[in-house]
Design brief:
The chain has 407 residues and is an alpha/beta fold. The chain has 2 domains: 173 residues, Glycogen Phosphorylase B (Rossmann fold, 3-Layer(aba) Sandwich), CATH 3.40.50; 189 residues, 3-Layer(aba) Sandwich (Rossmann fold), CATH 3.40.50.2000. It contains 17 helices and 13 strands. Strands 10-9-8-11-12-13 form a 6-stranded parallel beta sheet, with helices on both faces.
Length: 407
């Protein structure tokens, strides 16, 4: 989602008259022009450390052994944050060379990874006239998902705090990320929260007139299950709802697009659960659907299902999938206890939320079925959909750019 967010942001900024030059990573150094934007790809000198570290955690690759493994472990222990710090220097040097004659109006970086924060700091230090806007899509040094020791975490925090003190403004992906950084880093007052928004292709799908069979309740979930995200609680709640309301047997259909687990064992467990709960006539799975066609399938559903992690790793985020759902105009059932999606769905009347308990899910499904029978549809109003376009988020970001004084 991070790469797609950057792609859409630069696309809409270009449409609004901004001249955009992107510096990013690549397998080799290369220059290209895409959608009217110049793109510079720079090779990461230490990419092999990242690749070997990933290989260590996957069965499909051969991890480094012996002296190579020792070097990798030592390097990862000594390097704060991530191994792309040398790329940061290369990116900063290239940016300075490009902008010496004509400094940019705005320098925009996005983290994680931390290497972009370092690159922004280095360019800002050299080109003091540029307004440095730093985007924070997630926590970095204080993020609990990183298995750092206390000493290394404190060091990373001090480094990040010093670098961010030089930024002129911030873009926060969510309110909780903003709250965390303002409390811990004394971040400057200049900053906005800008959600992901949804893509134009989903807006087009929302404009289509799709008629659903009267009385049918079609639920669709899109996305793979991994980590602490699991379809099992929903399946048990679904079975309980069907037992309570026998007429649902004729009208309810659930489709999962994507894999039902991260490993073959998890996938098999979910498939066994569907059979044991006698849900084979109500639940179908589709391995994959091209991304550009998803909007059409969303629109052909009555309700769109969102299931988040249960281990609190996603509590600072709002899943990008939620904005795709909103863009297609169908209401959402979110099985989550994460505060941000719960608040957003309640605030804008986007659907229903429920904890991942069997009873709560069954209660909510019954409520949704009654609502669908009474209203004849589960639509999100057009004026609400319009608030979450990515173009609308880009306009807010542009206003932040223009509000900062030149130096």
């Amino acid at each position: 989602m991070a790469a797609r967010r950057a792609e859409l942001l630069t696309h809409f900024l270009g449409q609004r008259g901004w001249s955009v030059h992107i510096i990013t990573t690549g397998a080799t150094d290369a220059e290209e022009v895409s959608d009217g934007m110049r793109i510079t790809r720079l090779r990461d000198p230490l990419a092999w450390i990242t690749a070997q570290a990933q290989a260590t955690n996957t069965s499909s690759a051969s991890p480094a052994r012996g002296w190579k493994a020792a070097i990798i472990r030592t390097g990862r222990a000594m390097i704060p944050f991530d191994s792309s710090f040398l790329w940061s220097w290369r990116a900063a040097r290239h940016a300075r060379r490009l902008t010496t004659a004509s400094p940019p109006s705005v320098l925009l970086t996005s983290a994680p990874p931390f290497s972009t924060t370092l690159a922004g700091y280095l360019v800002k230090r050299r080109l003091g006239a540029a307004r440095w806007i730093h985007e924070l899509r997630d926590l970095v040094s204080t993020n609990p998902i990183y298995a750092w020791g206390n000493l290394r975490r404190r060091l990373n925090f001090k480094i990040e705090k010093h670098l961010l003190s030089k930024a002129d403004g911030f873009i926060f992906l969510t309110e909780l990320i903003e709250q965390e950084y303002r409390e811990r880093y004394a971040a400057p007052a200049v900053g906005i929260v800008a959600y992901n928004g949804y893509e134009p292709s989903f807006a087009a799908a929302a404009q289509s007139d799709t008629l659903l069979p009267s009385g049918e309740l079609r639920i669709l979930h899109a996305g793979n299950f991994y980590g602490s995200r699991s379809p099992l609680p929903f399946l048990h709640g679904l079975r309980l709802a069907l037992d309570r309301v026998p007429e649902l047997e004729k009208h309810l259909q659930v489709t999962f697009v994507g894999t039902l687990g991260q490993s073959p064992v998890e996938i098999q467990t979910a498939q066994d659960c569907i059979r044991q709960l006698r849900l084979t006539s109500h639940v179908q799975t589709v391995a994959t659907i091209p991304h550009e066609e998803l909007g059409k399938h969303y629109r052909c559903s009555s309700l769109l299902l969102l299931i988040t992690h249960t281990d609190a790793t996603s509590r600072y985020a709002i899943p990008g999938k939620l904005f795709e759902y909103i863009g297609c105009g169908r209401k959402v059932l979110a099985v989550t206890e994460d505060p941000l999606p719960c608040r957003l769905i309640k605030q804008h009347d986007l659907g229903w939320t429920t904890p991942s308990s069997e009873t709560s899910i069954a209660d909510t499904l019954q409520e949704i079925y009654r609502a669908s029978q009474q209203s004849g549809g589960l639509e999100i109003p057009t004026q609400t959909i319009a608030k979450f376009t990515f173009e609308q988020q880009t306009r807010r970001i542009e206003k932040l750019f223009l509000s900062l004084p030149s130096r």
